[in-house]
Amino acid sequence: MTPQERFLALMRFEPVDRMPLWENAPWRSALRRWQREGLGAENQPPAYAECENKVQCGVDLWMRPRYACQVVSDDGKFVTHLTEFGVLQRVPKSPDEMSMPEHIEYPVKSRRDWEELRKRFAPGDGGRWPADWPQRCARWREEGPVLVFQAHRAPGLFGFVRELMGFERTLYAFYDEPDLVHDMMDVQTDLVLSLLPKVVAESPLTSLYFWEDMCYRGGPLISPAMFRQFMLPRYRRITDLVREIGIDVVFVDSDGDVSELIPLWLEAGINGVYPMEVAAGMDVVKLRAQYGRDLLMTGGIDKRVLARDREAIDAELEAKVPLAEKGGYIPHVDHAIPHDVPYANFLYYWEKKKELLGIREPV
Fold first, then answer.
1. Which has the closest alpha carbon to 119: 196, 180, 191?
2. pTM higher than 0.70 for the full model?
3. What is d(CA 139, CA 36) in angstroms, rounded to the nearest whole number?
4. Structural domain tally of the chain?
5. CA 293, CA 272: separation in Å to the nearest integer?
6. How far is residue 71 CA from its own chain's centroid?
7. pLDDT class for 94, splitting at 50, 70, 90?
């Protein structure tokens, strides 16, 4: 079976020739540690070469043209710079520094900013297609990867607004400027709807993946009522179209405790959720018991146990990996691997996971 055939069969609870291997990447600081602990300078963990071929379709879902990247300040330890997506952020210079960027300013600070920026999301922009699009489609048909309609933090609805306005301003806008939020989500929805038919007609598309990150460990960042008002109708426009043109596996990526939103995503036509963060209370075994075959999942392996010992790794994997045999689930760690994970522990985890999946030979 090709990776695409294997993925779709598993998500449809059909037999597969073997279980798929997926994994989240290490943080840059974790990779540096692994290279010092035996992997070797500049080397990448060979385990990732065993993973299924899962690729994004390469269609540009963001603003065009981008912003001009520029360094605003550099104090020797931190660099403040403007990204191509118009975000002013501060990041550490050291590749071993484990830190999220400090987001200082976002491109949409007012309705006027949005009116100017929305022009960069024009659906008819032919530059959204890779120059080698026909060649890519031919190669994908030959190789059969898991091909997803996804780009940098897109498509999304809540995620689209927060990437342009920032968390705090986005949450206020749901109350103070609902028309602005509606308009921004409409622009993203219309862009996705304009691109999908050509993608499906010309490429062997496997699935659509939304990116939202709209929860934290305490639950969703907006109420279910707001989800219904702002997001559900637009999701339905997109998911109705993808099913009409033959795509029946639709995932959403959100960190945090997503349990309150799962029924709403299912109602919206989204049948898959990942990465199922354990620290936020997500439990793939309990969710399978609750939702049965209605809910598809990937992730759900607590990344924190990789920093502990073999007994903890065994217990986590033995509790969850067997769920994959029943279909509709691919186990991998629930987010990027942090730098407190020794390389020896990762190697043990990887071989133990393959053993439990019944993969005894290199793939």
1. 191
2. yes
3. 37
4. 1
5. 10
6. 28
7. confident
